Amino acid sequence: MFTDFKITEGRPLTVQVKEYLKQWITKGKGRVDQKLPSTRELSTMLNISRNTLVAVYTELEEEGYIYTVRSKGTFVSKVGIASVPSWHVDWQQHLSPVAQAATDLDLMKRDLRGEKGMINFASIAPDEKLFDLANVKRAFLDRMAIEGEILLNYGYAKGYKPLIEYLTGYMETKGVDMDGKDILITNGFTEAYDIILSSLNVNEKHILCENPTHHTAIKISRLQGYDITGIGMEQDGIDIGEMERALTENSFGLAFLTPSYHNPTGIVMSAEKRVEVLRLLAKHHIPLIEDGFNEELRYSGSHMAPLAAFGGDGNSVIYLGSFSKILFPGIRIGWIAADRELIDALVSVKRARNIHTSTLDQAVLYQYFHNGNFEKYLKRAKSEYKHKHELTVECCRKYIPHKRLTGTGGLHLFLELQDGIRSRDILRDCYEQGVVFTAGDVFYTDGQGEGTLRIGFSRVSDEELVHGIQVIGKAVQRRMEENGC
Amino acid sequence: MFTDFKITEGRPLTVQVKEYLKQWITKGKGRVDQKLPSTRELSTMLNISRNTLVAVYTELEEEGYIYTVRSKGTFVSKVGIASVPSWHVDWQQHLSPVAQAATDLDLMKRDLRGEKGMINFASIAPDEKLFDLANVKRAFLDRMAIEGEILLNYGYAKGYKPLIEYLTGYMETKGVDMDGKDILITNGFTEAYDIILSSLNVNEKHILCENPTHHTAIKISRLQGYDITGIGMEQDGIDIGEMERALTENSFGLAFLTPSYHNPTGIVMSAEKRVEVLRLLAKHHIPLIEDGFNEELRYSGSHMAPLAAFGGDGNSVIYLGSFSKILFPGIRIGWIAADRELIDALVSVKRARNIHTSTLDQAVLYQYFHNGNFEKYLKRAKSEYKHKHELTVECCRKYIPHKRLTGTGGLHLFLELQDGIRSRDILRDCYEQGVVFTAGDVFYTDGQGEGTLRIGFSRVSDEELVHGIQVIGKAVQRRMEENGC
């Protein structure tokens, strides 16, 4: 007893001793009716004040873990656990197709992961060194002072009202007509997309999207039982001719597009193509899910309105927003801006899934915006990422032989290698030398893309960046030589 | 222009003026090529420093909303939104069965809701006046100081490691053998239950549970396509005889039970019944989902181990925990403690749904526990709720004629009225007098319970409590007189 007891600094001793004794009893280390040392003995043994130990014993007795017999001492209670026949379930045999597919399509399990100390181009998370923690703290304390109790109790499934109002205005500054529309706050893009697919009953469970596209979107679409047809990408966005043919030859229930800093290619769809895309979808009556991914991360050029803005007063575009690739992904906030009646139905689905998104997260983010921190942060982040973007482009051009390089903004570039060079081979070679990136095939809807790779540069230092890309470049050259290119 | 501009205190002026102008432009209030007032003119007009306005114009120009012609002035840019044929989707016609059922079963939409100023017995949320905000702030600042950047960037789908470790120990103090088990952090009980049902592929999509039971569990089970059979409740928990018959006569894939302070009846299952229940489930090889609902809110009596503890080293019990009815429901944290391999599959499902639960929420909660605040808070909350519980029992006995009253802990009581008295009639009568509660029929798996009601007392003052129950009592008596009882 107490041989394995370790005191943690900064935690009340009563709590630590009590927890230790509770576990000692419930884990069966202490026999029922076994006598405990007196508080005096324990006080000497542990060098802890007797008052503390008296408090612990009193509470444990109140909670029924121990009992006292006057002038005899304190003893372990029977904590009420009788043995019953325990049995084993083979859970692997009882996983649903959804759980199996989620596991099979789980990149975190399937792909080579960057280990500590490696140069990691696989991540496209923001660089946490840019986070302005002081402003986040300020936002938290400001909001807690205004309505702390309210933040900590149940909120609304639709979301925290001040944040919804803020985002409504934010969508309007993007040119989106919010009349007759509404907003649902979600736990990031992932939940938004998942809730929409599970809430719709479209004519055909068939989605038209860009090829390649966001791996999570492919995964969720498959888990929800949708077929996917991907349309090739040109330098200024989706191939309109190919899209038109696909729409004529197949029936689709939905389209999913990422017009800005598209993941994984980093391509921005031109204004002309935005108009064309919407004309085609209107002609074939196909609603669009627009992923507003990274559209804040424009490093040059003028404001580009999302497709939802081009849609005018129509209600056929469902816009999904998130700040996760820019600001605080640990705070899980995304949103759906769509037709008011549709949002009303999605609110019930959201409530049935997890009641609502963390009010604390929503409130901190709202106050951070309200305090005017976002604009300043974005300016700083953009200048930092712009530099990294330019450096990555320069290094890729210099060191990695390739057929195509795309990405005019955002946090990543996309490369297509010479024919016959497989990025998974390169990844294995580089991994041994401490460099990791994402093999591009996981982004393809049709099993293609074996010669492609995505290079995320947001969390890599300049020095690592140059070295890492040299390593990739050398591995590509070696393979090319072997192939006799 | 600027006629509807209102300055909000405590927000940077640059941000406010910029947002106003952006919306003015994107909403089409400013024509393309329309000349804007000079910064000097605007400065006089708005009584804002010219420097601020110069900064705003510079940023708007950088972002492509406006353009400057030297010695001519500043003009509105074409923000790239061409009109495309907009069209309307009738979303109501395209809702999936899940979305329709979620709406139909949405109590927040279906039931009479308590309005501000009413006496609200419908809520079983904790009383936010008990929240110790100072400790929550402390926990936030402590954790942010330790690893703020990490909290705000992406975390792990399984959850925040320190919290998982803490909860593992917490489960052990409840007597649960955590060897071979693991924990997944979820967005509350609701997500935990939903993830499990969608991840399992049991032999029969048929759940055995208590009748009545948690409305959310009924809702999610139905949405996931499960049949439900509810077993009647006795004063010490589920009716074992009825359970045995049901198990013999039907095939079940899962059981779902809430042994402590059961929602809605408030009944605690006795230790003897816990053993019996597990024996029966083992005999029929039916895995159990245990809802650890409110088991912390014991006002008297000794420690009662959860069913997961009685299960010993077996892996057939999946335990769902949550502090939401005790502590900070706005922080959406729940957990699943179950077989390690099962948790591993659930982690992929969780990742496909929303990447992970808010790290900020998890970290604040962890630090709050670590700082030893929970034990103190629980003591205070229990003493307050114990008092309210006693007062509610006393008032119900005194004022509301009933056949049965249950609830020995937790935040609510459950009443069964005399035959022929319908609680929905009573609810309507009371609503007019500013009193609202939950009609019990929503908790029944078989459409029964029309004579039952749940009275949540956690957020009602003593004075309101006495008056509110008198109002209910009078309404019941009036109906009884009409019925000639």
Automatic annotation (TrEMBL), chains A, B:
Q: Name one GO molecular function term.
A: transaminase activity
Keywords in alphabetical order: Aminotransferase, DNA-binding, Pyridoxal phosphate, Transcription, Transcription regulation, Transferase
Q: Which SUPFAM superfamilies match?
A: PLP-dependent transferases, Winged helix' DNA-binding domain
Q: Where is the HTH gntR-type domain?
A: 11-79
Stored Gene3D superfamilies: Aspartate Aminotransferase, domain 1 (3.90.1150.10), Type I PLP-dependent aspartate aminotransferase-like (Major domain) (3.40.640.10), Winged helix-like DNA-binding domain superfamily/Winged helix DNA-binding domain (1.10.10.10)
Cofactor(s) the protein needs: pyridoxal 5'-phosphate
Q: Name one Pfam family in it.
A: GntR
Q: What does the similarity note say? A: In the C-terminal section; belongs to the class-I pyridoxal-phosphate-dependent aminotransferase family.
Q: What is this protein called?
A: GntR family transcriptional regulator
What organism is this sequence from? Paenibacillus rhizosphaerae
